Amino acid sequence: MAKSSADDDELRRACEAAIEGTKQKIVMSIRVAKSRGIWGKSGKLGRQMAKPRVLALSTKSKGQRIKAFLRVMKYSTGGVLEPAKLYKLKHLSKVEVIANDPSGCTFTLGFDNLRSQSVTPPQWTMRNIDDRNRLLLCILNICKDVLGRLPKVVGIDVVEMALWAKENTPSVSTQRNLTDGPVVATVTESDLKVTVEKELVSQAEEEDMEALLGTYVMGIGEAEAFSERLKRELLALEAANVHAILESEPLIDEVLHGLESATNCVDDMDEWLGIFNVKLRHMREDIESIETRNNNLEMQSVNNKALIEELDKLLERLRVPSEYAACLTGGSFDEARMLQNIEACEWLTGALRGLEVPNLDSTYANMRAVREKRAELEKLKSTFVRRASEFLSNYFASLVDFMISDKSYFSQRGQLKRPDHADLRYKCRTYARLLQHLKSLDKNCLGSLRKAYCGSLNLLLRREAREFANELRASTKASRNPTVWLEASTGSGQNVNAADTSTVSEAYAKMLTIFIPLLVDESSFFAHFMCFEVPALVPPGGLVNGNKTGYNDDDANDDDLGIMDIDDNDSKTAELAALNESLQDLLDGIQEDFYAVVDWAYKIDPLRCISMHGITERYLSGQKADAAGFVRLLLGDLESRISMQFSRFVDEACHQIERNERNVRQMGVLSYIPRFATLATRMEQYIQGQSRDLVDQAYTKFVSIMFVTLEKIAQTDPKYADIFLLENYAAFQNSLYDLANVVPTLAKFYHQASEAYEQACTRHISVIIYTQFERLFQFARRIEDLMYTITPEEIPFQLGLSKMDLRKMLKSTLSGVDKSISAMYKKLQKNLTSEELLPSLWDKCKKEFLDKYESFVQLVAKIYHPSENIPTVSEMRELLANL
């Protein structure tokens, strides 16, 4: 048999170490598995995993008494035993082996002092039946010897236990209470067996049985004598019994009579008890009825108390403080009283919200008192909103009227004054929180307030813009440049030394620098002040156009908002649409003063539209992310206005160009060719930023009209058309050579003029050459035409193309070739007004004549063979060079 853990000395020492200092002695220690739950039919624990534990039986001597304990040990993290639970064996009332455990190794120990008897006691599982029997026998012996009693044993066969104790003689240490004190004894097999048998026959009964058996002599040889003796004694006993029965009849009668009397008494008592039972049942029913009514009264009392508390809370919520009611219905809106007004608004908002269903139980919502109180609060709200709206509308108008009445707020003669709204905004911010509460109370009331604010501030902004623009124009000194640049009747050098008009552009830039940041700030402040739910786009101290905002008042670092355009955020389209509509009311009309500055600048110098367009475009590109929508619209309208004025100037200039064709005769270079070069030079000086496209469009329109007009004028006199065209195209190239190198648009027209010049030169030179050598080249043309239909050998036999005809033609044409060439030079020089073009034209003419003559010589050599004596190409080139 394997060694039991009960014989493990090392385990015993570990247990003794765990309880060191308690003065207890370990009697027995054994390893077990602890589980909690019930055994199912499958024989497995259902709910919890088994945990390793050690059960140790210990005793402690206290005088003449010995106390016995059952200790539960568990293993700590380091594998060291430590006490977990302690049970006193004097409270052990039951030992039960679990019947559903097939192995029979699981049992429970029931103690009568546990606080919660409803909790299932832990189950202890041994490794085998031997360990279970050792532990249970040790527990039973200790209870018998130390406590003098045994617990109830369930599920264990006592005979089987006795047999096992006989076969196994383990030594188990225990303590016995001897006369001279507790000593440690060894319990052997016989002790264990006796302990079990004592449960079957007591010591006194055993002694009586031995004495009774000792009176008989049980010899094998005396069986018949013993039998006879027993028969005689039996007969004697029966006779004695019959006699006794006969003698005891009076006694029996007396007993029967007593029994009958007792039966009657019992019947009477039963009847009384029945009566008492009925009365007690009625009393019990009365008591139950009284208890039921009492419970109902107690429940009603509790409910009434809770109801009173709830009603007190509801009444507290429905109560309107007198100070708030007075403030809401008739209080002042002075700055000193704003704190009280804000507190009253906060209370009113909270009170209205508290009477709504999410914050108020739905059962209270339909109560008449709640409905009446809600109506009363709504009346207070409407009264306060109406009073506050009227006050703020009048307040905004009074602020603006006060500023308008004071002329020192605006620009005056000789003094440009930057608008300053710091004081206005400071006063408005006093009522910012009031507006927020008005929005939470009644969002619809903000519409009229926004219109009142926009209407009042619009008057101020328009007055400031008008005074500033008037003084700006009055203080700007600039000579007016004529708008007629390309008129045919004026001199060509009229606009070369035009006056400096840069102050006009500077004035326009100053207007934008002052008012665009102001309008952006006003738009942002308006959106923030009037509680528009839009995202903040301009951070505090933000930049406009890459520079510090030009409107640096005291609140430059406040949390003003930039307003996003409507299309930037679809989720708040309605709010942004309302904002931009309000901004239209706020800033509408101020554009007229900007238009006045633009028109004034146009009248002084139309070309300044280019620089103004660049300035506006720079502001517009800088405002795309951080300006109010209306400011971008204003800048866009300004840009359109400037473009319109400049287009007007371009159209007028184009009309001036077209008027040139009405003249009867045009000779030489037209006047608008050099003037356009001067105009283009001045326009390039004015270009700023994005105005390049505007100027290029003007160039395109100017040059297109110039070229079309040039062609029309040339067609009026076809005889001199080529000379007229080549002179003007040459003048165009000469005047725009430098600009064409840096302006791509002008470079394109420069190349177009160059091609037209080459074509005019070619046509004019061809006419001069054919005029002087008509017979020579006409003869060559007839030969070329015939070569398409007949062979070269047949051409000399054609009429008018024989060798004799060739000789006559050469003699008449080349006999005075030097004179013909001189006449060609004079013809070229005769109608040319630009003498500087003559050398280049004469070179082109000589080259063209030599090319044609070389073609003629090759043609003659091919058809008539080199038998004819005609000047060679080298001779002709040398002749041209000597002239």
Automatic annotation (TrEMBL):
<comment type="similarity">
    <text>Belongs to the SEC3 family.</text>
</comment>
<dbReference type="InterPro" id="IPR019160">
    <property type="entry name" value="Sec3_CC"/>
</dbReference>
<dbReference type="InterPro" id="IPR028258">
    <property type="entry name" value="Sec3-PIP2_bind"/>
</dbReference>
<keyword id="KW-0268">Exocytosis</keyword>
<dbReference type="GO" id="GO:0005886">
    <property type="term" value="C:plasma membrane"/>
</dbReference>
<dbReference type="Pfam" id="PF09763">
    <property type="entry name" value="Sec3_CC"/>
</dbReference>
<keyword id="KW-0813">Transport</keyword>
<protein>
    <recommendedName>
        <fullName>Exocyst complex component Sec3 PIP2-binding N-terminal domain-containing protein</fullName>
    </recommendedName>
</protein>
<dbReference type="GO" id="GO:0000145">
    <property type="term" value="C:exocyst"/>
</dbReference>
<feature type="domain" description="Exocyst complex component Sec3 PIP2-binding N-terminal">
    <location>
        <begin position="48"/>
        <end position="146"/>
    </location>
</feature>
<dbReference type="GO" id="GO:0006887">
    <property type="term" value="P:exocytosis"/>
</dbReference>
<dbReference type="GO" id="GO:0006893">
    <property type="term" value="P:Golgi to plasma membrane transport"/>
</dbReference>
<dbReference type="GO" id="GO:0005546">
    <property type="term" value="F:phosphatidylinositol-4,5-bisphosphate binding"/>
</dbReference>
<dbReference type="Pfam" id="PF20654">
    <property type="entry name" value="Sec3_C-term"/>
</dbReference>
<dbReference type="InterPro" id="IPR048628">
    <property type="entry name" value="Sec3_C"/>
</dbReference>
<dbReference type="Pfam" id="PF15277">
    <property type="entry name" value="Sec3-PIP2_bind"/>
</dbReference>
<keyword id="KW-0175">Coiled coil</keyword>
<feature type="coiled-coil region">
    <location>
        <begin position="280"/>
        <end position="317"/>
    </location>
</feature>
